[in-house]
Amino acid sequence: MEDPPLASLSLTHVNYNPDDRLSYLCAWLALVPQGLCITYATLVWSTREVEVLLMFTGQLACEALNWCLKRYIKEERPRQMNGKGYGMPSSHAQFVAFFSVTLALFLLFRHIPHPTQTHTPITFIERALLALISILGAGAVAWSRIYLNYHTPQQVLVGCAAGAGFAGVWFVLTSYLRRAGWIDWALDMAPARALRFRDLVVQEDLVDAGWARWDSQRKKRLLKPEKDR
Q: Which residue ranges run through the membrane (predicted)?
């Protein structure tokens, strides 16, 4: 009895031209969404910040929207492409567009960190620069899909528009939930308290989070007399 043919896991399988260095770079850019999902999960678990959880939830909802759009439009990928599945809109372009626009909206309109005695948060100009870098990075990922012949320019543009548009809708929705007190209500529930979820990143700089308290405790220990140690 012959062995069945092997299958390829399309989640990470990327076709590229080995003789083209730019094609090789684009192949790595194609893995950005998978890397961001790992980053999301790591940050949700390590920081327990509800804002990160909200962003991750929106990202998954955006992916669900892409799944529905592809099966509704049913447009094929470019003829040069040997991959499977529909191509309109590009899921990579929609993913990174949602991420970059959501991050930009957070940095520019929601994240207002307060300075402490030990740390000065980044300025608005610096936050705007980070937002711009994020958007440019998303543009590079989206362009790589065209270069690798996974999508047509139209499929990528529609993906970017869908991701950016959904990011705007999600930002407005989460802003309403904050103003209406739904976020505070959810954080007061037993599961959220048991998992130690918090909502500090809006006003607290992540770099400084917890560090000032640790530094204060360290200084107190150093000031104690030897006999009290």
A: 22-45, 93-112, 124-144, 156-177
**Total Cβ atoms within 10 A of residue 182:** 12
Closest CA to 151 of 68, 63, 67, 76: 76
Closest CA to 139 of 118, 124, 159: 159
- The pTM of this model reads 0.82
Please report, for the chain, the start and end positions of each structural domain, with discontinuous segments joined by +: 21-228
With H, G, I as helix, E, B as strand and everything else as coil, classify residue 69: helix
Instruction: Specify the amino acid at residue 106.
Output: F
Of the candidates 163, 183, 214, 182, which has an alpha carbon nearest to the alpha carbon of residue 60? 163
pLDDT, tens digit, 9 for 90 and up, residues 162-209? 999 999 999 999 999 999 989 989 988 999 888 888 888 887 776 666
Nearest to 145 by CA among 69, 80, 67, 59: 80
For the chain (229 residues), the mean pLDDT of every run of 10, in chain order, is 56 75 86 91 89 94 93 82 74 94 93 72 87 94 88 92 96 94 90 86 71 69 65
